[in-house]
Design a protein that fits this description.
- There is one protein chain.
- The protein is an alpha/beta fold.
- Helix 4 links the parallel strand 5 and strand 6.
- Helix 2 runs parallel beside helix 3 and helix 3 runs parallel beside helix 4.
- A 7-stranded parallel sheet has the order 3-2-1-4-5-6-7, sandwiched between helices.
- The radius of gyration is 18 Å and the shape is globular.
């Protein structure tokens, strides 16, 4: 029976993905900064672990007790929405610490295990913000785009050792805690000069024609984890799929272009 380790399982995509793998009979190591036993059903195949991907000591402690892992799902991430002009560089670095360097650090820590076994899958959850230019998410998009290039390179670099690297690209999911998780980071990041434009973008959030469900992402992660065709990218959600296929979005969606996880 295979084992998957998933980061960011306290809500949204990570929580849905943990549910999905459990339903498929896998052993699941669900990680989050502060584990909560009420989020997932009790199961002999479920283990909750504390893990902060921005802290090396937390990564080492988690991997020291989790045993063999077949699939690593790097899902933990933080959101950011606002004018780049008004975004402090300390905030940009904070976003990169989780969305980019945290993914890299956990992947690097896991690779010796995979290489020694000559097997393993890395699934990195990015965003459909990497698929088309989108306003007011410049720093966030940069943090996710970095992982796109990172993963594509790893797919070649690690193939020699039987290790596969995959990308899952979710669209906009209204039911995630993207804005809530961004929290104080977004304070003051819509200056007056951007006000009217930001309002038009936010209006697009209110009436999206196509959206992504957390279950769409969980299913895409499942497909990526089990794929042996060599496919690198797995768009998740109707809006993400539309972007991949070059579909023309309705005017309201083109204005907001609000497609991020």
């Amino acid at each position: 029976m295979k084992t998957v380790l998933i980061t960011g399982c306290s809500s949204g995509y990570g929580l849905a993905t943990a549910h999905h793998f459990l339903s498929q009979g896998w052993h699941v190591i669900a990680t989050m900064r502060s584990p909560r036993e009420d989020l997932l059903p009790r199961s002999e195949r479920l283990r909750l672990l504390a893990l902060d991907v921005t802290r090396a000591e937390s990564i080492d402690a988690a991997l020291a007790v989790c045993g063999p892992i077949d699939v690593l799902v790097n899902n933990a991430g933080v959101g950011l929405f606002g004018a780049f002009e008004a975004t402090p560089m300390t905030t940009v670095r904070e976003v990169f610490e989780t969305n980019t360097f945290g993914v890299m650090a956990l992947t690097q820590a896991m690779l010796p295990r995979f290489r020694e076994r000559r097997a393993g899958v890395i699934v990195n959850v990015t965003s459909s913000a990497t698929l088309a230019p989108m306003p007011l998410v410049a720093a966030y998009t940069a943090s996710k785009t970095a992982i796109e290039g990172f993963t594509a390179s790893l797919a070649h670099e690690l193939g020699e050792f039987g290790i596969r690297a995959k990308l899952v690209e979710p669209g906009y999911c209204p039911d995630t805690r993207f804005t809530e998780n961004a929290g104080p980071r977004m304070a003051g990041m819509i200056p007056e000069a951007y006000g009217a434009y930001a309002m038009s973008v936010l209006a697009g959030f209110a009436q999206p024609a196509r959206v992504t469900k957390a279950s769409d992402v969980a299913e895409a992660v499942w497909r990526a984890a089990n794929d042996r065709s060599g496919q690198l990218r797995f768009p998740a959600g109707a809006d993400a799929v539309a972007l991949v296929h070059g579909d023309i979005l309705p005017a309201g969606e083109r204005t907001a272009v609000s497609r991020f996880d």
